[in-house]
Amino acid sequence: MSNNDGKICFDAIVVGAGLAGSAAAMVMARAGLNVALIERGQKAGGKNYFGGAIYTHAIAEVLPDYMDRRPPFERPVTEAGFWMLSKDGALTRLTVQGGKLATQPADAYMTSRALFDAWWAEQAQQAGALLIPKTTVLNVIRDGSGQVIGVTTDRAQGDVYAPVVIVCEGVNNLLTQKLGLIDHDLEPAHIALAFKQVIALPMETINARFGLSDEQQGIAASVLGDVSLGLPGMGFVYTNKTSVSVGLGMMLDAVIEYRLKPYEVLQRYLRHPAIAPLVKGGQLLEYGAHLIPEGGYRDMPKLYTGGALVAGDAASMVNALHWEGTNMAIVAGKLAAETAIEAHRRGDFSSATLAQYEERLKERFILQDMKQYRNFAHFLETHPSFMDTYPSFINEALEQFFSAYGQPKKQLFKNIMGSLTSRRQFLKAVGDLLSMGKAVMGW
Ligand SMILES: Cc1cc2nc3c(=O)[nH]c(=O)nc-3n(C[C@H](O)[C@H](O)[C@H](O)COP(=O)(O)OP(=O)(O)OC[C@H]3O[C@@H](n4cnc5c(N)ncnc54)[C@H](O)[C@@H]3O)c2cc1C
Prior knowledge:
Helix 2 runs parallel beside helix 9, helix 9 runs antiparallel to helix 11 and helix 14 packs antiparallel against helix 15. It contains 16 helices and 21 strands. It folds into 3 domains: 221 residues, FAD/NAD(P)-binding domain, CATH 3.50.50.60; 106 residues, D-Amino Acid Oxidase, Chain A, domain 2, CATH 3.30.9.90; 65 residues, no CATH class. The radius of gyration is 23 Å and the shape is globular. It is α/β, with parallel strands linked by helices. The termini are far apart. Flavin-adenine dinucleotide binds next to helix 1, strand 5, strand 15, strand 19 and helix 9. The site of flavin-adenine dinucleotide has 39 residues, from helix 1, strand 5, strand 15, strand 19 and helix 9.
């Protein structure tokens, strides 16, 4: 930090000590820049919440020796996939285990964001960044030409100056709007409200109920079917060492339109005959909710302007189908930092120089995936059957297939097809499947 004419000056300011922010601060501090990492929470992670599992490829990119630094991981994800719930209590599991999921360190680990983000920000501090908690950035400061040169905060004499500001403010993209990078609030139809409970259970109970041998095995399941009242939404179940995270995400417009009470929807889900036995007798440890920007590519703001860059949820960098947001945030934070370092090297923080950030994102999975899935985010809005009707059909079909009714099999197949056509036309289902394939492939 330097003091120019009574001004507090840094080489770079990062707004938000979440995943993207601490990654950006770490990379810049390691390159020798004076970095202010400003966080509105009491401490890093204090305001953050997710499902969830965090991906190690992204952590390793920023901090290759992360495992030696004892990250606060819960269980590794050694089994992952879809569970489908039927109304009559059946559960079909379409999961994968072993193979790549059995490698060490694992591809992903369950974690608590309160603990992980505090540890992640500590790594940025150890690299030399100055973490300034309990401070909300209110706006950006511009010079006469419109170039961003700092931020105003809610502290007395709290203006802070730097030639580059990296905005990692998460889903509430107020600064991104003030920067003029996006000119509207995200629509409720493009935002998921995710709510969950963390339920404490003895480790042995979790192992026995989920078929895990020890705490080195863990399950991450996306849950479809009788979960979200037939509205666009998806449940999840994650096993921690001595707790289970169970929750679901629903699109905010549906929550508003149908006046849903999230805790009632969650209670209903927790009472489902396939879910209730998994959490029976557990003690409620946490109850929380958080928004997820799921609008995809079409909701992404412009990613830079003179003196500022935006990364992570603030830029809608989320791939909802794959539950990928943590890795996009961390890698985007790193790429924004590398762009800022290059701008320092050139002594040029103009929009033209910072445009490199977008080029870097294009070379990586972030912009490539966001672009490929550009139609998928909106596909589920118009095809909620994929989250309810079709998973229920698969359940019922399998139930019938593996039950003996003492009837000729011809009747069995008639029953199975009958249960589909009573919900939707068979051809419509085939058409929907093709449309989904197109939406995922980006055709
Ligand atoms: C229920 C749920 C489950 C999820 N599960 C997964 C999963 O399993 N895997 C996965 O990869 N992703 C998952 N995600 C998505 C993932 O959590 C996000 O994509 C990721 O946290 C984005 O990181 P970020 O750094 O961009 O934003 P955040 O983590 O939200 O960090 C933003 C930070 O900025 C701070 N801040 C905001 N405004 C200001 C301001 N004006 N001044 C100062 N500080 C400010 C906030 O306090 C916060 O610390 C899930 C999300 C939810 C809600």
